[in-house]
Amino acid sequence: MSSPSGARAHWSNRWAFILVTAGSAIGLGNIWKFPYMTGTNGGSAFVLIYLACIIGIGLPLLMAETMLGRRGQSNPVDAMRSVAEEAGAGRWWQVIGIIGILGASLILSFYSVVAGWILDYTVLATQGFSGLGKAELENIFTGLLADPWRLVGWHSAFMLLNLIVVIGGVTGGIERANKILMPALFAIVLLLLGYGIAAADMPAAIRFMFHFEPQAISAPVILAAMGHAFFTLSLGMGAIMTYGSYLERGTSITRTCLYIMLADTGIALLAGLSIFAIVFAQGLEPAAGPGLILQTLPLAFAQMPLGKLVGVLFFVLVSFAAWTSAISLIEPATSFLVERFAIGRKAAVAAVCFVAWFIGIAVALSFNLWSEIKLFGLNIFDLLDTLTTKMLMPLAGLLIALFAGWVMKRPHVMEEIGLTGGAFRFWHGTVRYVSPVAIMLIFLNVIGVIG
Ligand code: PHE
Predict the structure, then answer these.
(1) Does ligand 1 come within 6 angstroms of the Cβ of 25?
(2) pTM of the predicted protein model
(3) Which of 131, 258, 267, 416 lies in the 20 to 30 Å Cα band around 406?
């Protein structure tokens, strides 16, 4: 809860930090995006590179971003200003915070529209999908996309849910919501997994996701996997930095970040396995794209035993996951407005949600009335997704790695990250060399400089 004296809020304990940050990380990225990207990018090749990116780039940067937030004890912009000052570096490093706040707000705008689809499908699932065939389910999805009012309505409802939580404050709102939603989410994932093992084709799912096929690896697959590693760990968008700024001194950043990474990756893999087990058991197409969980899965729910129950559980799961992530997209800009401009928390949250809601309307319209509006061949939705996931996130990640690895004074880094000896050198070396080089190589590859 924000206190009038201006003292900053802190999470109740380290488990609360792990829970809320896992809540931010585990979202549509894990249950909607990861399975469909695995499906369209050749299955196991994508999974393998994704895992490599998570361990080689994601985890070290997750630790670095948390460290910067805790060191700075402030919103992303002011946190970067104070850590840069401490390092005797230029104020322009604040740009990391600015990219984060802008990026998070843009992600929120389209995230909320997609979360709106999920809310719509949660209601549909309560009526059951039985009797519906492939064509009908496709019509339901295209019908939803073609209906601006339905899209904007659900988008607004989702934004409102988030507004209510974030207005409640850091512990009274964000922490409290996560303490209810996250355990429910874990329970539903396990139930679905149990169903996948007992009643669907788990061996086929395992083969699809883990059978190694080196020939399927290509530059676009690598970029997609890296971009997704950033997205799924909520990196570079100020969310982790802000949550880290509410972390007490003395908590191990290494251990908490390791748990967060394991939870995020674990849920993605388990959700992916459960989804593909159901998809394969029904003889459906894994490469269906963004409609995978909306068009393909309901077909499976329509045909399988206990389909109605599994369907409702599934969409409730995705809604909860989206909700705990979206609130972490609101907090960076909120804390910035509150701390920099002394705006009250309620007004700040309302302003942030309003801006994202407004841009979200354009996103919703890009599926129907404005589908012809394109820049670089991309509609508004694809444009925002590409701009944030493939550009702003890796860029912010690169700057964070450079700052934490090269600019921040080594004793300060050691003190804050809490590592010594070989463990410190390993992490520091990764942040100094591996992360920046990997990000730059992939960028150069994408813009066609190296092949
Ligand atoms: N990590 C979230 C997901 O996987 C999305 C997210 C990105 C949340 C960036 C916060 C910041 O759905």
Answers:
(1) yes
(2) 0.94
(3) 258
